[in-house]
Structure formats: C-alpha cells, structure tokens
Amino acid sequence: MTTETGAPTPSFDTEARRVPALNGARWLAGGWRLLRQAWWQWPLLVLLALMVHGLILNLPVASGLLTMLLMPVLGAGFGAFAQGVEQGDRRLSLLFDGFRKRPGS
Question: What transmembrane ranges does the database entry give (predicted)?
Fold first, then answer.
C-alpha cells in the first residue's frame, strides 16, 4: 500500500503484549520505592541536569547541537542513578555515567 504521495505505508506487524493491569501498579510502586530510597538526591540530580542544560544553552553558536547530543546522555545518567539506587549506590556523579560508559552506542 502507498499513501497519496506515493510513499509506502508503514506497516506495524507487531502485536501488543497483553499483561495484567497489576503490572502497571507494580511499576509505579517500584518507582515510588526508588524515590523514597534517595528522596533528597533526586531533586539535586534534576537541578544538576538543569544547570548543565542552562550552561549549554548559554553557548552562542552550538547550543542546539550540543543539546541534541548531550541531553540523551544525561538522560541515560538518570537511568544509571536509578540502577545505582537499587544497588545501594547513591552518588550524584552517576548522572555523568553516560559520558563514561559507551557514550557513542
């Protein structure tokens, strides 16, 4: 099939996976548990990421490009921090793990 412009219509052959609704409640409870375990570090982590983003935005020439390149890496740092909290490691420096561990992958 094609669209009006002749471009092929994207096909979505995958089927949605059905899981019990309770899985969503468990996911939310797990997130709440992570927040409680590091209740004061999470806001500091967000402030640190916002400061880095603010510094990037103040660069006159390449702020847009740097934002596109660096913010996903900082986002991975939030995941590294969440994983660290699960393992008992609550260092704020985990925000920058995306730069240290495989930043190009």
Answer: 38-56, 62-82
Distance, CA of 5 to chain centre: 36
Q: Is the Cβ–Cβ distance between 70 and 49 less than 8 Å?
A: no
How far is residue 3's CA from residue 42's CA, in Å, rounded to a whole number?
46
At 72-99, the pLDDT tens digits run 888 888 888 889 999 988 888 888 887 7
Q: State how far the Cα of 70 lies from the Cα of 85, in Å rounded to an integer.
A: 23
What are the residue ranges spanned by the domains of the chain? 39-100
Q: Are 71 and 53 in contact (CB under 8 A)?
A: yes
SS (H, E, C) the chain: CECCCCCECCCCCCCCCCCCCHHHHHHHHHHHHHHHHCCCHHHHHHHHHHHHHHHHHCCCCCHHHHHHHHHHHHHHHHHHHHHHHHCCCCCHHHHHHHHHCCCCC
What are the residue ranges in the chain where pLDDT is below 70? Answer: 1-3, 13, 101-105
